[in-house]
């Protein structure tokens, strides 16, 4: 990476984020590099050889957060970008009214930059929504689709902490009332994802999440993403996700890409019956329910990777 790029990135995100990210990546055998998409720097992690798999992390996360899964995937070339404004990537304008169109266009340009005419596409949570939207818009470029806990689909419900963070005024106030710390991060992981015990096994990941919570760029992007798909008055909307933001059943019927749904049975978004309802709407889709919360690869990295690997082969 050039000195110019280093200086540019240092000004985009805090030094604390960079240092925490470097510690996470240092423990893994992955390549860390930058590419330019529409004049903005995108940081990505890459590992393995074989057919490509683009892996998209969730809202307020990083590609580094997916490393426990990345490390267990074999026989594929995994490319995991930090989505705009997260991790070490530059932010872009995520305007609420054009959020879906913006994400599809960004991902299309990323694949062009990576010279991937076609690829398997996987995503977690908010990243799963990006993957699903892209597969609906450009099925000709997606060979396989893996959805891990997509939130904005029929019957799901957001946990209270996420609805709080999405509420105008409250979201900006929360970091002041509850400053990011390892303790508050684990508490959030419990209420929002049912992953407190599993996340506690990854202290470097916790440190990165704390650093991101303190970083103004990342915090603003996280709020923008949440508000793009949730009600602006999250506390007043029972599920947190209005109908206009969800992928409709008729859209799910139009998914033509072979699809795997991976769901944690303790996911606060909904139980296994919710996952079955969504999966049955996608023609030929397969569902695997694991004994986890919202992040199956944290407590079950090998099993999650094996499930995905079998589907991709």
Poorly predicted tracts of residues? 1-10
Question: Main beta sheet: strand number and arrangement?
Answer: 8 strands, mixed
Name of the CATH architecture: 3-Layer(aba) Sandwich
Global mean pLDDT: 92
**H/E topology pattern:** HHEEEHEHEHEHHHHHHHEHEHH
Strand order, largest beta sheet: 1-2-4-3-5-6-7-8
Query: In the CATH scheme, what's the topology name?
Result: Rossmann fold
Radius of gyration: 18 Å
- Identify the overall geometry: globular
Q: How many domains would you count in the coordinates?
A: 1
Q: Structural class, from secondary structure content?
A: alpha/beta
CATH homologous superfamily title: Alpha/Beta hydrolase fold, catalytic domain
**Helical residue percent band:** 40-55%
Count the strands? 8
Q: Gap between N and C termini, in Å?
A: 34 Å
The CATH class label is Alpha Beta
Helix tally?
15
Q: Your description of this structure?
A:
- This protein has 313 residues and is of the alpha/beta class.
- The chain has helices spanning 3-12, 15-26, 67-70, 99-113, 126-137, 160-166, 170-177, 182-193, 196-199, 203-214, 216-229, 249-253, 272-281, 296-299, 301-312; strands spanning 31-37, 40-47, 52-56, 77-81, 119-124, 142-148, 259-264, 286-290.
- The two termini are 34 Å apart.
- Residues 1-10 have low confidence and may be disordered.
- GO terms for molecular function: monoacylglycerol lipase activity.
- This is Pimeloyl-ACP methyl ester carboxylesterase.
- Residues 51-294 form the AB hydrolase-1 domain.
């Amino acid at each position: 990476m050039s000195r110019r790029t280093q200086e540019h990135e240092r000004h985009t995100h805090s030094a604390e984020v960079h240092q925490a990210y470097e510690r996470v990546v240092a423990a893994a055998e992955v390549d860390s590099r930058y590419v330019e998409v529409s004049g903005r720097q995108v940081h990505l992690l890459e590992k393995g050889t074989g057919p490509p798999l683009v892996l998209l992390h969730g809202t307020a996360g990083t590609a580094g957060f997916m490393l426990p899964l990345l490390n267990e995937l074999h026989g594929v070339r995994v490319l995991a970008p930090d989505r705009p404004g997260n991790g070490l990537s530059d932010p872009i304008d995520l305007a609420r009214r054009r959020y879906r169109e913006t994400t599809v266009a960004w991902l299309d340009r990323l694949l062009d930059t990576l010279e991937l005419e076609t690829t398997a596409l996987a995503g977690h949570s908010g990243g799963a929504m990006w993957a699903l939207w892209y597969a609906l818009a450009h099925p000709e470029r997606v060979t396989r689709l893996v959805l891990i806990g997509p939130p904005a689909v029929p019957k799901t419900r957001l946990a209270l902490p996420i609805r709080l963070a999405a509420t105008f005024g409250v979201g900006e106030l929360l970091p002041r009332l509850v400053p990011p710390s390892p303790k508050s991060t684990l508490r959030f992981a419990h209420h929002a994802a049912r992953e407190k015990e599993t996340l506690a096994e990854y202290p470097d990941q916790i440190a990165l999440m704390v650093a991101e919570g303190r970083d103004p760029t990342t915090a603003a992007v996280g709020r923008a993403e949440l508000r793009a798909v949730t009600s602006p008055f999250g506390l007043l909307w029972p599920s947190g996700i209005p109908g206009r933001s969800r992928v409709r059943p008729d859209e799910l019927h139009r998914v033509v890409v072979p699809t795997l749904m991976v769901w944690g049975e303790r996911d606060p978004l909904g139980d296994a019956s919710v996952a079955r309802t969504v999966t049955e709407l996608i023609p030929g889709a397969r569902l695997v329910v694991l004994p986890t919360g919202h992040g199956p690869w944290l407590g079950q990295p090998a099993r999650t990777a094996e499930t995905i690997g079998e589907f991709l082969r």
